[in-house]
Amino acid sequence: MSKIKVGVVGATGYAGAEICRLVFGHPEAELAAISSVSFEGMALSEVYPAYYGLQDMVCGGQEEVVEKSDVVFAALPHGLSQDLAAQCHKLGKCFIDMGADFRLEDEAAYKEWYGGEYTDKALHKEAVYGLPELFREGIKGKKLIANPGCYTTAVPLALAPAIENGLMEMTGLVCDCKSGVTGAGRKPVQSNHYPELNESFTAYKVANHRHTPEIEQTLSRLSGEDVKVTFVPHLLPINRGILATCYAKLKPDVTADQLWEAYHARYDGEFFVRLLPRGQVANVKNVRYTNFCDVSLFVDSRTGTLIAISAIDNMVKGAAGQAVQNMNLSFGLEETAGLVLLPPAF
């Protein structure tokens, strides 16, 4: 069987380059074409010297990517994927959007948070939301997949078993999250300039982050009711990682043992979700460069509060790794193919 031909649009951004890194080690896929507006005509290894001699493919145009590929990953800013998705759909190509254009089911929410419109409403209805651990069956074999964002992966995985088992209240949810600076993208801005970021730790886009409606959409889907959250992201002076600390009121008489039983039942069969032993705390250091999500649980018995903590690598499980996981599901491959990566120990 020939390998799946992979194309990456926006290959020189952090998420696009990470796709190229992961595909390099994939047993059933190979890179066929890449594109970059900023670095067209340059080899990927010129932009990222770490790839020298291993991934030296030259950046071409989008048309070449579509023509040569079985699956196209779009690592583009919001608003730039819809036409490309339509082109791939017409040609029967698989399209995995790593941006926000197909994540929200409600066009009004997309207009409110991203200032855009759905150019092809029928095409949007065909898109599936690619969070495999929660919506696996709906992803298998699909050709248009909206890859979730980083916060929007970490928060639902932290809370899903408690929600699905009716163990927590669905009001007053607080999602207190921290991200490494790669989440801001490769283009330099003042806030991720080294003198500003180093020795610093600050909240940003407080109660106004664009991942808010996406988090609420997933939690609403899991619970069957309209859910609102208080979401506060923070910027860490590190390259990689998302740490999501989620606070929820437990239903009356719910015990810690019930929670552990629900989480074990939900996640014991999930390769990429590691439910940590009691007392251990999820740490972004322990998931770096991998597609793992570590989850730890605590109960504040004085206040009846569930404290669910998850840690992911925002560039892998929060972006490129999950996208490859979705590709595997789309093409009927082993879900872990190309993603069995041992985290560095130190």
How are the SSEs ordered, and which strands pair?
Layout: E1 4-9, H1 14-24, E2 29-35, H2 44-47, H3 62-68, E3 71-74, H4 82-91, E4 94-97, H5 107-114, H6 121-126, E5 128-129, H7 132-139, E6 144-146, H8 151-164, E7 173-179, H9 194-197, E8 202-203, H10 212-223, E9 229-235, E10 242-249, H11 256-267, E11 273-275, E12 293-300, E13 305-312, H12 316-330
Parallel strand pairs: 1-2, 1-3, 3-4, 4-6, 5-6, 7-9, 11-12
Antiparallel strand pairs: 7-10, 8-9, 10-13, 12-13
Helix pairs in contact: 1-12, 8-10
Give structural notes.
The protein has 346 residues and is an alpha/beta fold. The chain folds into 2 domains: 158 residues, Rossmann fold (3-Layer(aba) Sandwich); 163 residues, Dihydrodipicolinate Reductase, domain 2, CATH 3.30.360.10. It contains 12 helices and 13 strands. A 7-stranded mixed sheet has the order 8-9-7-10-13-12-11. α8 runs parallel beside α10. The longest helix is centred in the last third of the chain and has 15 residues. It is globular and about 60 Å long. The two termini are 39 Å apart. The relative contact order is 0.15. The mean pLDDT is 96.
